[in-house]
Amino acid sequence: MAAFDVAKLEVGNDGQSPRRRSVFIGHAGERVVALRVGLLGLGTVGSGTAAILLDPSQRHPLVRELVIARAGVRSLEKQRSISLPAELLTTDLDAIVSDPNVDIVVEVLGGLEPARSLILKAIAHGKHVVTANKAAIARYGDEIFAAARAAGVYVAIEAAVGGGIPTIQPLKHALSVNRIRRVLGIVNGTTNYILTRMATEGADFAEVLADAQRLGYAEADPTADVDGLDAADKIAILAAIAFSDRVKLDDIHCEGIRQIGATDIGYAERLGFAIKLLAIAQREAGNTNDDALQVRVHPTLVPREHPLASINGVNNAIFIEGDPIGEVMLFGPGAGAGPTASAVVADLVSLVALMKTQPQGTDLHGLMSYMRQADCRIVPITELVTRFYARIDCIDRPGVIGYLGTTFGKHDVSLESIVQTDRREGLAEIVVVTHDVREGNFRDALAELASGAIEQIAIPSVLRVL
Amino acid sequence: MAAFDVAKLEVGNDGQSPRRRSVFIGHAGERVVALRVGLLGLGTVGSGTAAILLDPSQRHPLVRELVIARAGVRSLEKQRSISLPAELLTTDLDAIVSDPNVDIVVEVLGGLEPARSLILKAIAHGKHVVTANKAAIARYGDEIFAAARAAGVYVAIEAAVGGGIPTIQPLKHALSVNRIRRVLGIVNGTTNYILTRMATEGADFAEVLADAQRLGYAEADPTADVDGLDAADKIAILAAIAFSDRVKLDDIHCEGIRQIGATDIGYAERLGFAIKLLAIAQREAGNTNDDALQVRVHPTLVPREHPLASINGVNNAIFIEGDPIGEVMLFGPGAGAGPTASAVVADLVSLVALMKTQPQGTDLHGLMSYMRQADCRIVPITELVTRFYARIDCIDRPGVIGYLGTTFGKHDVSLESIVQTDRREGLAEIVVVTHDVREGNFRDALAELASGAIEQIAIPSVLRVL
Predict the structure, then answer these.
(1) In chain B, which residues have their Cβ closer than 8 Å to the Cβ of A356?
(2) Cβ neighbours for A447, distance < 8 A, ≥ 6 positions apart
(3) Which annotated residues bind NADPH (chains A, B) (predicted)?
(4) Residue B299: pLDDT above 80?
(5) How far apart are CA B415 and CA B387, in angstroms?
(6) Which residues of A carry a binding-site annotation for NADP(+)?
(7) CATH number of this structure's domain B7-164+338-367, picked from the four choices 3.40.50.300, 3.40.50.970, 3.40.50.720, 3.30.160.150
(8) CA-to-CA distance for A351 and A257, rounded, in angstroms?
(9) So what's the ipTM on this one?
(10) Contact B387, B435 (CB under 8 A)
(11) In chain B, which residues have their Cβ closer than 8 Å to the Cβ of A31?
């Protein structure tokens, strides 16, 4: 790549660092805008981002037009893998978001506060924001985007979902010319790693989780991952984009993978399924009200021949169904320094490209968001129509299968199969797979079975089937 | 989606059709640009494109800002699935590309001529061009992009590779902040359909091809597909984008799938591989000259655990390896009316978005292309270092495996395995898998074996291993 023949046109008002000039003229008279980046955080993703910006050769040529103006850190003393001039580092994050020599703030702190406040303050100071913070966007996206709209700045969030996989941009632009029917995905690497190892090793959840924690694939407090909360944040964001709708996090039905055992994984495999933690958002089928969506996170039996069934390890995959495109899947590493930094820098490059075409001072909101300004209606989980898998323990006596079948039938639950899978010490283990049924009906049937009115019945496992 | 409150500001100079106004003011004073589209071709993809444009609800809001101004067809009498006002149809394609009431020409004729001439004429008349024509772009891309640069218009080609899968845009933008090491993919649906059926049915090539032709999955003249020429067109385009390089089609080593038999698919499966027609472009490993690329198309043994191994049927998948992102795969339908039209309209929407930010008359080239203006060096296939699979028929006598091993060794070909797979009527069938070797050495060894100096040896099959 021929280097830009950079002639200084205007110098940032600090007049100091040669990396902090603001506008140049490149070769062939092209306008070269150097955007000055303020990094909030120099941890895994922050360092990864800096590493790309400091080493632009063989990359998109606009990477050269991004300069690190400030980097906010917790400690100035810490040894770091990347070397930045000492005067760029500061522990004063507030100073970065209000610095007139910063054009774009990259928020890679994670967590809710001070991330939210810093993002809002950056916006108030007219900075564009690039963030990887799915938790803050899923909760405060409304407030943040409204502030950005008012200030005429961009908030770019490619890194918030699917790590390095181009997800937000394709969904927002290329794929959205389709009428999106459904977005579903494996969006949490930790749980997919755990489920993959459980499946290959026949091991139980607790055992694999402990090992994943030891290896750094799971956090000391694994709640956000294994209870599906991280996946819920991400599907809230994807649903908002795919359906131009506001989705309230509290409305998302969310189940994690703690209750999944080796037993269920084994049965699922025998039945031709892999168990995956799926995040799903879909337009309510057959509903004439456009605003009704299903948004949910739960472990799911995925047919072996479905592309999502073979996504293993820490990888993520986003599967999109639309009209007329059919089915598209975007696959790759869902987390980690390199992949997430790739998404952060992709957003930065998009901003540079915009600055090159956008006359200064133009309201940038026109292209930013077409999101509805009211919450959409989320269909209650009891209204979901889906297939179910359930594992049932009961007294082993003649007629028990008949009793189960009759009880399900009473609640309009049509069974595809009912199989006694094990019997010992007077107990029978029975696995049931239903046809499409209304979840409310299925739950009513299970409640009646579990009430113990007639038989001593336990239902250790209930899973939905894709 | 709230409809735009469209107030006419300026009327196209025909003054007739309400669908042909050119600039509006939308709600909240937003500038609404209606871009007038001239469709060259109303066949499968053209009709699919029109179908999306005529039915914009629940799609990207900018789809509403695209109006069909003209549609060029071969016959005005033909019955069509989509209904357009008769006065928009014409058989005079030249009139469309020079029509002052057309802003963007969509070329979905396919083939080299008149497509190339019409694209160039459209550019000369200051029209932007959206094309699905990989054959024309792979051959005349240079000429076409140079003309576009001179005229200050865009030529958008998302639909040329991978049908509806977002490929060109992610590769050009989001993924290109990475240092791309390799792009490889299944980019021809017909051959993947044939190979998939051969693998599942144990059938031979000719048999499945005939059936695919009967079912409409293969053309009456299947050459472009089964000989890898279509895949070569596509990898030429992907390589040019991934590596900002010009790639000459003639420099691409290209082998098709005619010689693949059920026997090889069976052996590959036993060895843990699927056979796929891969198109591959990669930076020459360990070479300090950035300009050296490998670009090739050939049937390849893909390890079963590689994501490309499980891409079946007419689907396509593009697998991208870069630093620091790692590995990303984009998967979906590689052809067909709906998917290809999705990509065409995605390009149209991008153009509308650009028009909204771009002051009229600005040179649009700045963001269009960073491609080098000279051809890159393509590494000759003899310099390729890869693993090989070969099936060898020879006289069944003691010492023959030793002779083979010795001959390979003489040419620096290190073997991973050499297995006699069959023996009958005095003949032995032997399957050889090598370690990484230089292709030139391997070919020299095969040439010595096939020369018949010592043994009567035939080599019915040679395949590379991923």
Answers:
(1) 366-367
(2) none
(3) 134
(4) yes
(5) 9
(6) 40-47
(7) 3.40.50.720
(8) 38
(9) 0.88
(10) yes
(11) 366
